[in-house]
Design brief:
With about 110 residues, this protein is of the alpha+beta class. The chain has one domain. Helices cover about 25% and strands about 20% of the residues. A three-stranded antiparallel sheet has the order 3-4-5. The longest helix is centred in the C-terminal third of the chain and has 23 residues. It starts with 7 loop residues before the first strand and ends in a 7-residue tail after the last helix.
């Protein structure tokens, strides 16, 4: 498994629109949301990410703020992109479980 910190980019602190926890970094999506072209480094408008706390799927707006992905956007994603998001959610969930098992106080 790759390191979950690979491809993480700092971002201005902003609350997750779902859980309200403040996000300060974004995992980079290696593909654009509508195909498989490599992306430039750092989030771009329309890129997806997930909240590291509640795992909700988020989309970057034109001004690089974040919002929840709509059901219509989810349905429009190419299969390989949707599968990648699901795999990432699973990997983050597993990392949280392992951290809780070690008594990590940041894993609430």
């Amino acid at each position: 498994m790759t390191d979950l910190m690979d491809g993480v980019t700092p971002m201005p602190p902003m609350p997750c629109p779902a859980c309200g926890r403040v996000m300060t970094a974004s995992g980079e999506s290696p593909f654009d949301p509508h195909g498989t072209e490599p992306r430039p480094q750092g989030p771009q408008p329309g890129d997806t990410t997930i909240c590291a706390y509640c795992l909700v799927i988020l989309v970057f707006n034109d001004d690089l703020t974040i919002r929840r992905m709509t059901a219509e956007e989810w349905k429009a994603l190419p299969t390989e992109v949707a599968e990648g998001i699901i795999v990432l959610q699973f990997a983050v969930r597993q990392a949280f479980k392992q951290a809780r098992g070690r008594g990590d106080p940041t894993s609430n």
